[in-house]
Amino acid sequence: MKKLLSGGLLLMVLVTGTAVQAQNSRYGNNTRTASRPDTTVKPNNNGQGVVQQPAVPPTTVPNPNAGAGAVTFRFDTTNPGGFDAKPEISLRNNYAVDRSYVKDRKPLEYEHIRDDDNLWSEFIWREIDAREKVNQSFMYPGKDNNGEDQRFFSVLLQAIKYDSVTAFSADNDRFTIPLTQGQITTMTAGVNDTVPVPDPVTGAVENVITKKPRFSPDSVYTFRLKEQVIFDKESSRLFTRIIGIAPIAKQVVGGKSQPRTLFWIYYPDLRKTLAKVDVYNPKNFSSRMTWEELFESRFFSSYIIKSSANNPGDKYLNAMIKDPLFRLLEGENIKTRVFNWEQDLWQY
């Protein structure tokens, strides 16, 4: 009788252990099912539940043992365009002197101009071509002490990303539609593209999924300025205040390179960032001004593309003058007219 009870107890323990094991197996399966919706449970020949794992997606893990003709996928997380690359911060002082004060610089406040003292005003649109020799600092690709690209277009992107400067849509130049950082990133970084890369040894084809930039940083070499010229009768001075800056990229559409205005930035919001970034000086690396000083001192070359004077149709010069040489001459005429307007107020 004792032997029978012991045998029955042993049989009950075995059955209970099997039930607990099956229950734990199902709990584990339920956990996997919650995290992987495509995981299914199918019975095997013994009637027990067996987890059928889905095939590893080839888009995330490449197959290193793939034979000839096999196709795998791999994600390339690097950004060939360099617009959203993580900066490499220097762990030591990159200069022989202490330049930590650079990040504490602030721009000077503008001199206040009363609306009643605004005797004469005119809006002028200019374009800066960085391919000119005097403007080559706009395209300097070096790295500063924070590892950031020193191209002026990269400085604009840094201001949007780190200094909370708002970018506005290029639909108009009146700053009406703000853009998010995600929209700016999509605009510059581009979209995902699949590039087949064959292995020269095994012949296996690997599809590399990477972000294909819409344009190169070197293709953004034109910058448009919107500025207002004001004559203040109280100080008897002619002020030129920059209102906005817009980068223009060259994009290939239909086999032809066409300019595209990316976005507008309100210049007074940008001055705090420009005051902390130095401009590359090819003559003397020690004597460097900030970008804010460069714009306020007018140390750049530009040409006029539009003026609010004698322009009831609000048209650019290229819409009114087809010859590019005559457009440049008309821009010089506008410069001369503004200069003479101030000079004619004085008597000698």
How helical, in percent, are the residues? Answer: 25-40%
What is the N-to-C order of secondary-structure elements (H for helix, E for strand)? HEEEEHEEHEEEEEEHHEHH
> Can you summarize the main beta sheet?
8 strands, antiparallel
Low-confidence stretches: 1-71
Helix tally equals: 7
Strand content: 25-35%
Distance between the termini: 135 Å
Shape: globular
Walk me through what this model shows.
This protein has helices at 2-35, 152-162, 181-189, 267-274, 291-296, 317-320, 324-343, and strands at residues 40-43, 49-52, 71-75, 118-129, 167-168, 178-179, 191-198, 205-212, 222-232, 237-253, 256-261, 264-266, 303-307. The chain is α+β, with helices and mostly antiparallel strands. The protein has a domain at 117-174 and 216-343. Strands 4, 5, 6, 9, 10, 11, 12 and 13 form an 8-stranded antiparallel sheet that branches. It has a 3-stranded mixed sheet with strand order 3-8-7, with no helix packed on it. Strands 1-2 form a two-stranded antiparallel sheet. The longest helix is centred in the first third of the chain and has 34 residues, at 2-35. Residues 1-71 have low confidence and may be disordered.
Brief characterization of the structure:
With 348 residues, the protein is an alpha+beta fold. The protein has helices at 2-35, 152-162, 181-189, 267-274, 291-296, 317-320, 324-343; strands at 40-43, 49-52, 71-75, 118-129, 167-168, 178-179, 191-198, 205-212, 222-232, 237-253, 256-261, 264-266, 303-307.
Which key phrases capture this entry?
disordered N terminus, 26% helix, 348 residues, 8-stranded antiparallel β-sheet, alpha+beta, 7 helices
